[in-house]
Design goal:
homodimer; about 325 residues; alpha/beta; 7-stranded parallel β-sheet; 4-stranded mixed β-sheet; 14 strands; globular
Chain lengths: ~325, ~325
């Protein structure tokens, strides 16, 4: 018997989930739900329906877990609580400051519906959160460092695209090697924003645009760029397509801490990701946690959960004895 | 209220647990149990009893979790099941091949006593097992690589010490940088034992011993050294004490895998540890899981568990809302 999955929202992440379901033999895709006209949405899996999101109630008994692939700014705060009343749900809500509120909303809705909702699943929040939690519980006297990149930040790319005269843009977040090495040395350095990451932009300017003004507007943009050393490279639309069409990302979570009666020993725990495709990797994490949601729901559990609440064995398709023999 | 912990066995690991308890404000050390004469065992914590292991039954209601710090070869297979009938227990059983049998024995005993037993806790098995499980669940189409070191292998050091003419010895396991880099590149190389690790020995020879024979006996020793490129350095007892008295260790768990409709994207997940003190780090992991055993037992759970069965939040001393706000 396989776990019947629905995808809600068919952008980069939804397509990634579709691909991940093919790699997990105990899962099957039942339907893709879209707010667009379903007739205009072509998916990669033959024989699977594309359905208007308005008709999702009809799938209440046909889906074990719904993976919600909307955006964190406006979609998920509304969609996840609403859908958790009807389905076991997974989302990748990543607005860190609003996670406690989102948790409460999903918890109420999921309990009302007798369902499980696992929120903020992906790599940050998600796998990086787990790396932080485990390493904090082990090394209680220490310091945490999270570095992102090298990778494309969609938010920063969008911010550059909104500047007048910009036809297209891609922004890479790049961790500073010296800072990484200082952390790995166990020195527990205090690092400013500028010391941890640099930002590199590739920009296609519109014909006749003032490049000096664009560069200045980028480098002085508050929150996004002003606190960083930023490099701006103007390239052609052709170069953009050829060299910057992917969505790579990754990063490092490092905890450095002391043990011993007098704190005489240093330890470094490091978790890192190097991802060719940010949305496809995130999708793989979502599908693993969809399996956990299915198992928990089958046991009668309901309410909101995070990656912190899931016993790791629940993520695996292997029987418990096999996990113990092969992976412990 | 703090978690009352007992330490069973007071060697390097037991001393590490004692130090770790001081770093975890919600735990307290109640007693150290020893098979030696308690009068001859001096511990670092004032006001805490050292008790003969024969009298442990008298502590049944005074201890919430007993951390068993015996060896995997002959101690733990007997001690953990026996003690799980009386106490919630944690051990660091690390004979990989015998884990399923140990699990069953502890499960029966713990259920009989209405206790929780968490076995094979530490870094390998333990944190490395978690890294393997999580990364396998995410990247289902991939390959696993575990590298150990640079660090002191006690088993290999002991093997060298048993050679005639050897007064003292220390053996370092060293991962091969080229192999690590090949794995990180995503090439999924097939690596032989010799290609993954080298072994470096520091040996103090007895006066008049035949160093050439000792070196040859080390390098040709089956299982321990014959399959590796091994370097033997003869040093003085003084150098041994000055430069090799620590017990550093560490290693790398790397999973490399593909995603996408046609496996077109590569991903690397890497978890690594760099430890100044192997026993102290292991002890910190044991204490975090002792907290989880206490919480599970308080909920009425009983039986054997592994690191795979524990929701990560159970390891933390922080309230759930705080974990979500600060670490997710």
């Amino acid at each position: 018997m396989s776990i019947r999955i629905g995808i809600y929202g068919y952008g980069n992440l939804g397509r990634g989930v579709e691909a991940a379901i093919r790699q997990n033999k105990d899962t099957q895709l039942v339907a893709v739900f879209t707010r667009r006209d379903p007739a205009g949405v072509k998916i990669a899996t033959e024989g699977v329906e594309v359905v208007s999101s308005e008709n999702i109630e009809q799938y209440k008994d046909k889906i074990d877990v719904l993976i919600i692939c909307g955006g964190s700014a406006t979609d998920l705060p509304v969609q996840t609580p609403k859908l958790a009343k009807m389905f076991n749900v997974i989302d990748s809500f990543d607005t860190h400051a609003n996670i406690p509120t989102h948790f409460k909303n999903v918890d109420n809705a999921a309990k009302e519906g007798g369902n499980v909702g696992i929120i903020s699943v992906g790599w940050d929040p998600g796998m990086f959160s787990l790396a932080r939690l485990y390493s904090n519980c082990i090394l209680t006297d220490g310091a945490d460092y999270t570095f992102w990149g090298k990778g494309v930040s969609q938010g920063h790319s969008d911010a550059v695209r909104r500047i007048e005269g910009v036809a297209d843009a891609r922004q890479y977040t790049v961790p500073v090697t010296d800072a990484l090495n200082a952390v790995r040395s166990g020195k527990n350095p205090e690092l400013t924003t500028r010391e941890k990451h640099t930002r590199v932009c590739y920009v296609v300017a519109k014909e006749g645009a003032d490049k000096a003004r664009i560069e200045n507007e980028i480098k002085t943009m508050p929150n996004y760029f002003a606190d960083y050393d930023t490099t701006v490279n103007f390239i052609t639309a052709d170069e953009m397509k050829r060299n910057h069409s992917g969505l790579p990302h990754g990063g490092f979570v490092i905890r450095s801490g002391k043990t011993g009666l007098n704190g005489e020993h240093n330890h470094i725990i490091e978790y890192s990701l190097k991802l060719d495709s940010n949305p496809e990797f995130t999708a793989c994490v979502l599908v693993a946690f969809a399996r956990a949601a299915f198992k928990l729901s089958s046991e009668g559990v309901s309410g909101c959960k995070t990656v912190f609440d899931i016993p790791p064995a629940y993520l695996s398709a292997m029987p418990h004895e096999e996990i113990i023999s092969h992976l412990l």
